[in-house]
Amino acid sequence: MFHYTAETTTSVQNAIAALETSLKEEQFGVLWRFNLREKLKEKGFDFEREYVVLEVCNPAEANRVISENVLAGYFLPCKIVVYEADGKTKIGMPKPTAFMNMLEDDALMGIAADVEARLMKCINRAANP
Q: Chain centroid to CA 47: how far?
């Protein structure tokens, strides 16, 4: 699968707060928070479910990736999405290894696998506080 997704029964906002705390433990920061529901509403569309995209970055890891292969920057920063579906809150991301696999670079795959494992840990801690 190209993604990793965990479920929780907490609200989207509580999941985001838990996720931000968890990300800090792994030296990731949130660069940008995009509330899709609010943006669509602003543009005249009804989108009822909560759907928030977080762009996250660990500067040391970003430096390692870009230093290895400048094209890897096309996949940065990492995205984590928190949204409502089927009566639950979901926290998910596209797997960094799925993206880096396209560049066919073994060194990048090692970095991506490490980042992916750390982000999955963050998601799991946020989903199961």
A: 21
Strands 3-8 and 78-85 turn out to be unpaired
Q: Is 16 within 8 Å of 52 (Cβ atoms)?
A: yes
Residues in the chain, pLDDT under 70: none
Q: How far apart are CA 93 and CA 63, in angstroms?
A: 21
Closest of 81, 75, 82, 41 to residue 61, by C-alpha: 75
Per the structure block, which two tokens stand in for 115? 């980042």
**Based on the number of CB atoms within 10 Å of its own CB, is 43 exposed (0-12), middle (13-18) or buried (19 or more)?**
exposed
Whole-structure pTM value: 0.94
Residues shown for the chain: 129
Phi, psi of 82 (to 5 degrees): -120, 125
At residue 129, the pLDDT reads: 80
